[in-house]
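thread: overnight batch results

M.L. [08:02]
morning all. the overnight job finished for the chain we discussed friday. pasting input first so we're all looking at the same thing
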Amino acid sequence: MSYVLIIGARSDIAKATAREYAKHGYDLYLAARNADELKEFANDIIVRSQRKVKTVELDILNYKSHSLFYEQLEEKPLGVICAVGYLGDQEKSQTDFNEAQLIINSNYTGVVSLFNIIADDFEKRKSGFMVAISSVAGDRGRKSNYTYGSAKAALTAYLSGLRNRLYSSQVHVMTVNPGFVATSMTKDMELPEKLTAQPEEVAIDIYRAQQKNKNILYTKWIWYWIMLIIRNIPEWKFKGMSI
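M.L. [08:03]
and the structure it wrote out:
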């Protein structure tokens, strides 16, 4: 096997996913800001799995650096998994556009910049897979997190179009829509236990779904049905709901 590039590799879901892919025989590029902080984690994977793991510096918001970042990878990956995400502060984003812009660029614009570069390469090679973690928050705007949700909605639409574009080139594109996940990003939130996944559960779901070439993954699975109901609530009723 060859390398899988994991973007946003310092996140809890990304780390769990890295372990899952290494366990199944894949070598890894772990890309993130302050990538040196991933050295200990990378060494642990190497010891446990005997796979090659390299850490690489990447700032998803530094768009001008993305082409050089990809060019400098010693061996081009056979797949990429993006776990970049920034929840941000909804109330702050309503009055401070810098916060809104950071949420949008972290969750959408930066991913598009890098994915466009990788997609061009995969399209020419006529092989590869591209996975990005979106969110159930992108299925419908809610007052509690609509800036974040709007960025994830844009990402979901982008991935749908990219999937359509790359289908004839045998490049698979998968959208991952997690519900509640117990991570450092949600540590201060009171989450319902039965609806909340652990990062390791999400990682297993991602690996299995990607191997089966699924287009869209909801994890936990029950979130597919929850969001189906939420999407079908009439707007006149939904706008008055406190969610």
